[in-house]
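Exercise 7.
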Amino acid sequence: MINERLAFERRDEQIIYINGHLPVFTHEAKDTASFRLFTTQLIANGSATQGDIVRAFAVSMTTVKRCCRVLRERGTGGFFRPPERKRGHRLTPEVLAAAQDMLDRGLGIPVIAGELGILASTLHKAIDSGRLRRVKKKTATNAPDRPVRQQAKASAVPATGTRRSA
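Solution. The predicted structure, written as tokens, is:
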């Protein structure tokens, strides 16, 4: 029971909301976005209070208030879109340019991070998101097909200098 007018019931994997004796909404038990949307709409429409939702569903007041803010600021679609990524404040255009210059010169991420006073993970995220590009390491054009150790092993002469006959 949510309050004296509203109730909910779980049938199999469905949650059914009932107003009086009529079902008014249903969603899958695992669908948290629909749960948050509908319970927040109950609050916004005055059918339930934030306290009613906290008590009925054992969710925190902070979560309920956050959902009310999502509905107010982003509308119903805000429950179904992933949250917007926060933009970093450390990588200003000047710092990005300096980091890219250092990357172009072949310096490593830890060295660049130390020089610029930022975390290495910040640089890795910038590379992953495409804001910075890593310089490909140069490989020798006349590199052998096999590693040097394998070549040395293959060309080694037996230590005794004699061969056994079968």
